[in-house]
Amino acid sequence: MIKLNAAQLRTQESDPNVIKKIKKNPIYIVLDNVYDTYNIGSVFRLADALACKKIFLCGSTETPPNPRIKKASINTWKWVDWEYKKTAVAAIKQLSINNQQSTIVAIEQHPKSVPLSKFKPEFPLVIVVGNETYGVSPEVLKMADKIVELPMFGINKSLNVMVTCGIVLYRIVEFL
After folding, report:
1. Is 14 a residue whose pLDDT tops 80?
2. Chain Cα centroid distance, residue 65
3. What radius of gyration do the chain's Cα atoms show?
4. CA distances from 35 to 41, 61, 77, 103 (A)
5. What's 19-173's CATH class?
6. Per-residue DSSP letters for 97-119?
7. Cα torsion at 46, 48, 52, 56 (round to 10°)?
8. Cα(48)–Cα(160) distance, integer angstroms
9. What is d(CA 43, CA 169) in angstroms, rounded to the nearest whole number?
């Protein structure tokens, strides 16, 4: 096992030639008004770890180069493909034009949601996670092909945006 200290993690740089050779998985992540910069930075790390095609930062979601995103992402924002869109709806519309077969999946607690364990992904896939307080916007929920949720068995009724996104995406890559 490779052990890196905090300084080594945060100064890691990747060779552009190595980055170009990585086979990207057909997964797009859309952040719909995610406010917490540590969640945003952590999603960059997640997207890098899973070789996702692209992240869309939408609405009030902060964008790099933000010092807290830089710190939480350990600089992965420099090589993970990302784009800012005014709304998550605009990002999804762009993806629909570019990838006519994309499946739009909102991660949300909702009357129409299915448990993650019952969800069978079809690729390419667009995963949408929402605001820490209000969740995925109603407009995006209407556009979603599927709404998926993580069942909650304790007193707390939700998990952190990045934690939820990580659990869902690691389950999904098992189907690739």
Report:
1. no
2. 18
3. 16
4. 11, 5, 17, 25
5. alpha beta
6. HH-TTPEEEEE---TT-EEGGG-
7. 70
8. 19
9. 11
